[in-house]
Specification:
The complex is a heterodimer of chains A (268) and B (78). With 268 residues, chain A is of the alpha/beta class. Chain A has ten helices and ten strands. In chain B, a hairpin with a 2-residue loop joins strand 1 and strand 2. Classes of the chains: A alpha/beta (268), B mainly beta (78).
Chain lengths: 268, 78
């Protein structure tokens, strides 16, 4: 017999599978913007994330503590990114360095057009995806909320497509929910809503739109209470996923009574 | 010999390899396979004159006068 509680439990254990790797959490965290490594570690733990992005930069002997070691110690898988790259050439070089340094062929491919918008440069992104797939990388392509481009990246061999909700760091939420739904409906690789998330309801909406996971950083690291916000996102992603699977009611133009009209008591 | 390390001038002994440099900079003992001898992840990558040097090649890669080296690691981001 299936009870309500076992049914709910089985829903909650539906794992996110990327490149054959299972994740219990559908929240992917970034690490940018945290004022200290200790605070970051606490926020990551509160969020329940099992996969977290890092950037690659020059080694500095004066840096105290190792972010990579922190993630290893917490059992969080590392996803290096190519943040700060403007060309496919730079992105490929950064990915090669990340593969050597962190011993993973996963890479979050970010090729941005300019520092003002931080929006992906579609032409360079396509070029870099092709080159990295050729070199055996598992490419998580950070892309515009463009259903045509997302499908193009998938066809080039991207392991996951990561459309933005809004520009990086803006916290504007999901500006074009219809496009995100369209991307999800045509994708056969995981779709991760990346960038623009401001608060928990944005992440829940991403999951309700059918995304497989959500990636965010600033919304937690720059929140007034990062640990509490990390926990809020943990619940938001679970709630959004459950709601998507449960099947929402259709929107209606007019009210629909939920109490029967028959059998009402009559009063004089 | 004189090299550039992460954009700055750096002086090393003439017989230095990539392993020598990585050990020197990180303060960790690096074995011949390019892993830290303390068993923990070293987490750095090296590019020499814009070519990535795989960690398995660190010990065998001798440095030369005027080489430009980049040593990178994971930092907060994304």
């Amino acid at each position: 017999m299936t009870t309500a509680s076992t049914e709910a439990a089985s829903t909650r254990t539906d794992a996110l599978v990327i490149d054959g790797v299972e994740f219990g959490s559908r929240l992917i965290m970034g690490t940018g913007g945290a004022p200290s490594l200790d605070g970051l570690g606490a926020a990551l733990l509160a969020s329940g994330t099992e996969l977290t992005t890092v950037a690659m930069r020059r080694y500095s002997p004066t840096e105290t503590g190792s972010l990579f070691q922190l993630l290893v110690d917490h059992g969080i898988r590392v996803l290096p990114n190519t943040a700060g790259c403007f060309t496919a050439k730079d992105a490929v070089m950064t990915a090669e360095l990340a593969r050597e340094a962190l011993e993973t062929d996963w890479v979050k491919l970010e090729v941005i057009a300019d520092e003002h918008t931080l929006l992906p440069d579609a032409v360079e992104l396509v070029d870099a995806t092709e080159k990295l797939v050729d070199r055996g990388f598992k490419v998580f392509a950070y892309t515009n909320d463009d259903p045509v481009l997302a499908l193009r990246l998938e066809n080039l061999g991207a392991t996951a497509v990561m459309p933005l909700g809004a520009p990086i760091g803006t916290g504007l939420g999901i500006l074009n929910p219809h496009n995100i739904e369209l991307i999800v409906s045509r994708a056969s690789v995981p779709v991760v809503l990346d960038a623009g998330i401001g608060t928990a309801s944005d992440a829940a909406l991403a999951m309700e739109l059918g995304c497989d996971a959500v990636l965010l950083a600033t919304a937690v690291t720059r929140a007034q209470n990062p640990v509490q916000m990390g926990e809020a996102f943990k619940h938001a992603v679970i709630a959004g996923r459950l709601a998507k699977q449960a099947g929402r009611i259709p929107r209606r133009e007019h009210a629909l009574a939920s109490s029967a009209m028959e059998g009402r008591a009559e009063f004089l | 010999m004189n090299i550039k390390l992460n954009g700055a001038d750096h002086t090393l002994s003439d017989d230095a390899s990539v392993t020598t440099l990585v050990s020197h900079i990180t303060g960790r003992v690096v074995d011949s396979s390019g892993q830290a001898a303390d068993g923990r992840k070293i987490g750095v990558a090296v590019a020499r004159n814009s070519e990535v040097v795989p960690r398995s090649q660190w010990a065998a890669t001798a440095l030369a006068e005027g080489d430009e080296l980049e040593i990178v690691t994971a930092v907060q981001g994304g």
